[in-house]
Amino acid sequence: MFYFFVDSVKSNSTGGRPIGTVANSSHAGEIRCNLSKKYHSCSFDNIKDINNIQMILVAISHNMCKISADIQKIKSNMIHMKSEMESFILNDTKKVNNNESQNLEKRTEDILSIFPLSTDDELLAIECKLKDEDLSYTQKLISAFIFASEGKTAEKVTTSLLKLIFTLELASEYSWKGQKGKKKLQDHHIFKVIIAAVKNKFPGINKDDIKPNIMTWFAQSSHKIKTSKQVNKESCNNNRNCSANYDDNQ
What we know:
This protein is an all-alpha fold. Among the domains are: about 40-80; about 115-230, Arc Repressor Mutant, subunit A (Orthogonal Bundle), CATH 1.10.10. Helices cover about 65% and strands about 0% of the residues. It has ten helices and two strands, in the order ααααααββαααα. α2 (about 55-110) crosses α4 (about 135-150) and α9 crosses α10. The longest helix is centred in the N-terminal third of the chain and has 59 residues, at about 55-110. It is rod-shaped, with a radius of gyration of 43 Å. About 10% of the residues are buried. This is DUF4806 domain-containing protein.
């Protein structure tokens, strides 16, 4: 480190001559930066007279400006790198999410492939799996029902699940408590899964709010079958080519 004095300070080590005079002597050439010029801009290159304070300040100011410019370049590069990294992370996250979504959709399709249930044997097979307390299967079924269900209200979600799980023909053979000589529904484990799926989408609802929707849907299943047949009949009557086929199937 070098110290420059404006005043002519006397020193015993300089034989009574000003320090500036010594620095400007034949030894002045030895005052140089030890860093390689390849890697930096040296202030000493612009200093011809080390006793000229104004020249020194100008040289330092030039280098400070260069440092400021370099800092701005670094900041700009960092912003660009940050943007690139965020873009990369976002794209990578999207790919991961897309893969997870596709995997979930595939697993959902696999586990829902047995639905809708159309016979007592198919319903019994599901009940056996659920009765065996196969928690892994139960959780997969709940997740699949959540993923596949539709509707913005608990009632619509419940209805969409019932349509997914049961055919109307099978549903018409059951009632909640076994009324009118039909088979009893309320003890089946499948309804615990349905209720769990609906509650997952609507946490504030309780099972007593969901059960009436289930009971109503099953109670109306026979009527829906008749309505569907009537609609099909009317559609066929409006189509001459279909009319004959309908009569043959009666």
